[in-house]
């Protein structure tokens, strides 16, 4: 570039430069200090701190060549950044260490410093984790995500108090009653909760009694196949429920009267309450056609139905006499994904024929094939089926 060209980036207002640097990985932001004297300390005002152990690195070096050197270098780098960071309101602080194992004492110190900088969003994904007591009484924290790989229990103060926390996301490798369930009672305005739980044999029920909660996502990783846990939901303001994993749980819907959106595995099929406000439903993991119909009876205002993974073969009754209320007045969209055209043809045709004959306001049925071979015979058969709704279209996705 010509020497006569103005440096328009450096002429930007300081707050704009700070915003740009805050959007970068912290290591990149710090490197701008070598550009000129003017830029030497610009990075110290960033409001987002993001440390990632693999950013811009050769993983073979991290694993084999300079592992200890890399850990020491990274530890000193984070220490230095926090020492010179001069912001009084840290918007977000993120640590993601997937390959190097930083001492939990160092991680605890960094989190404590972030709390002292009035952090609002905290995202910690490390191999070892020891949380400072100051975290559990942070008055500015609005979002907290914790993921770690060692089996540990945290030390808690006598009273957890996170008055501004709205989002809590925890991956728990061990007993959640020593970690996550001690945090939840101290969050008076919690709206979003995501728990990734490793289910083990224990005597405790998983009770969720959170009046303010609007979204709940549960992922169960069963360590022992015969473990059966009881999950009690008393969530009067819950609007979105997502449940994943290998589950052998008894779900008790004590109060989910506001639920409008759900995504569930087959484990919930044996304990079906009414969902008077649910408008969007996703069903995964081997739901039988008959069981799907049973679920529809529990969702009188359902508008959108998504059936994922595979359809089972059992429990279908030809031409059921009672039509779910949602099919008469609300159900407009049905999506069936990953369907295998070589299996369940007869039952699937009967099930879809029943829906097309009964769903009076249905607008779109979309079928995605599991493999690249689209069964033309089945497509032709489905297209010829009579439809209660004259506006209904059937779409096929495949080769």
TrEMBL record:
SMART domains: FBD. InterPro entries: F-box-like_dom_sf (IPR036047), F-box_AtFBL13-like (IPR053781), F-box_dom (IPR001810), FBD (IPR006566), FBL13/AtMIF1-like (IPR050232), LRR_dom_sf (IPR032675), LRR_FXL15/At3g58940/PEG3-like (IPR055411). Pfam families: F-box (PF00646), FBD (PF08387), LRR_At5g56370 (PF24758). Residues 6-54 form the F-box domain. It comes from the Eukaryota. This is F-box domain-containing protein. It comes from Tagetes erecta (African marigold).
């Amino acid at each position: 570039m010509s020497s006569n060209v103005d440096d328009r980036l450096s002429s930007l207002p300081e707050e704009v430069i700070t915003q740009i640097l805050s959007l970068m990985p912290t290591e990149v932001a710090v490197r701008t200090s070598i550009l000129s004297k003017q830029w030497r300390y610009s990075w110290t005002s960033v409001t987002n701190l993001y440390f990632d152990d693999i950013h811009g690195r050769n993983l073979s070096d991290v694993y084999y060549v300079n592992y200890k050197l890399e850990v020491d270098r990274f530890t000193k780098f984070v220490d230095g950044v926090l020492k010179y960071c001069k912001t009084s309101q840290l918007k977000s602080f993120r640590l993601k260490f997937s390959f190097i194992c930083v001492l939990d004492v160092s991680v605890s110190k960094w989190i404590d410093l972030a709390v002292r900088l009035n952090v609002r969003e905290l995202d910690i994904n490390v191999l070892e984790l020891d949380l400072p007591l100051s975290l559990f009484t942070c008055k500015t924290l609005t979002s907290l995500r914790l993921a770690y790989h060692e089996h540990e229990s945290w030390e808690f103060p006598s009273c957890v108090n996170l008055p501004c926390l709205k989002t809590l996301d925890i991956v728990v490798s061990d007993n959640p009653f020593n970690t996550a369930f001690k945090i939840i009672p101290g969050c008076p305005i919690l709206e979003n909760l995501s728990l990734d739980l490793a289910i083990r044999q224990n005597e405790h029920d998983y009770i969720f009694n959170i009046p303010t909660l609007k979204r709940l996502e549960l992922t169960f990783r069963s360590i022992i196949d015969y473990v059966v846990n009881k999950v009690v939901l008393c969530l009067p303001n819950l609007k979105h429920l997502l449940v994943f994993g290998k589950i052998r749980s008894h779900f008790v819907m004590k109060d989910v009267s506001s639920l409008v959106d759900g995504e569930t595995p087959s484990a919930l099929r044996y304990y079906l309450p009414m969902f008077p406000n649910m408008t969007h439903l996703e069903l995964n993991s081997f739901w039988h056609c008959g069981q799907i119909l049973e679920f529809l009876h529990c969702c009188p205002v359902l508008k959108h139905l998504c059936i994922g993974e595979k359809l089972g073969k059992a429990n279908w009754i030809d031409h059921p006499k009672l039509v779910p209320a949602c099919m008469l007045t609300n159900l407009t969209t049905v999506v069936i994904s990953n369907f295998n055209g070589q299996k369940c043809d007869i039952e699937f045709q009967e099930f879809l024929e029943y829906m097309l004959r009964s769903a009076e306001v249905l607008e779109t049925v979309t079928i995605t094939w599991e493999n690249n071979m689209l069964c033309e015979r089945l497509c032709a058969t489905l297209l010829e089926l009579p439809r209660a709704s004259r506006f209904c279209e059937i779409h096929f996705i495949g080769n």
